[in-house]
Amino acid sequence: MNIQPTNLQPMNVDLATRLNSPGADALYLSWRLQTDDRAAAQKTRRRLNAGETQQLYRIRSWVIVRGEVQALLSPAVSLDRIASSIWDEGSAPTSSRWVRRSECAKVVRDMEIIPVTLGLAARPEQWPWSSAAAL
Fold first, then answer.
1. Could you give the CA distance from residue 84 to residue 77 in angstroms, rounded to a whole number?
2. Which of 23, 56, 57, 69 is surrounded by the fewest CB atoms within 10 Å?
3. What's the mean pLDDT in 68-73?
4. Lowest mean pLDDT segment, chosen from 3-7, 29-33, 80-84, 88-92
5. Alpha carbon distance 128, 19 (integer Å)
6. Chain centre distance of CA 42
7. Domain limits, the chain
8. What is the dihedral of CA 114, 31, 33, 132, to 10 degrees?
């Protein structure tokens, strides 16, 4: 996997931090699901879409592979509110970081290629648990 996020506690990263991160445009989050199955992936996909519908954030990209979720979001509300909308009680946040505008396209590519790199799909758009397939 090409993404090497810093190990920050997602709840400690707030929107004000973006003001101190020149060029920060999006927030990368990753977390472990309580279970690695189709039902958990479907529920997570629905929760991500619901948060965007509620205008909590704009989804840049997301992928769910082997019980891990990675998402690149443009937040519109507090991170506590975002976290409560996407994480189940059994979810385990693993990392977060602000991503500069100039790095967003690379982070999206790196996330969407993970299923291909792991041999789970021939092309990113073939992996059903990814924004690449949702396009």
1. 12
2. 23
3. 96
4. 3-7
5. 35
6. 15
7. 10-134
8. -40
Per-residue tokens: 101: 């505008």
pTM for this entry: 0.81
* 128 vs 38: CA distance, rounded Å: 10
Looking at domain 10-134, its CATH superfamily turns out to be Transposase IS200-like (3.30.70.1290)
Residue 35 CB neighbour total at 10 angstroms: 13
Residue 83: how many CB atoms within 10 A of its CB?
Answer: 16
Give the single-character DSSP code of 58.
E
What amino acid occupies position 100? Answer: R
Angle at which helices 38-53 and 79-86 pack, to 10 degrees?
140
Q: For tokens 């769910």, what's the residue?
A: 64
What is the DSSP code (8-state) at residue 123? Answer: S
Residue whose tokens read 């982070």 = 107
> Rounded to whole angstroms, how far apart are CA atoms 94 and 131?
20
The residues near 123 (Cβ < 8 Å, ≥ 6 apart) are: 116
Q: What is the rounded CA–CA span in Å between residue 46 and residue 129?
A: 11
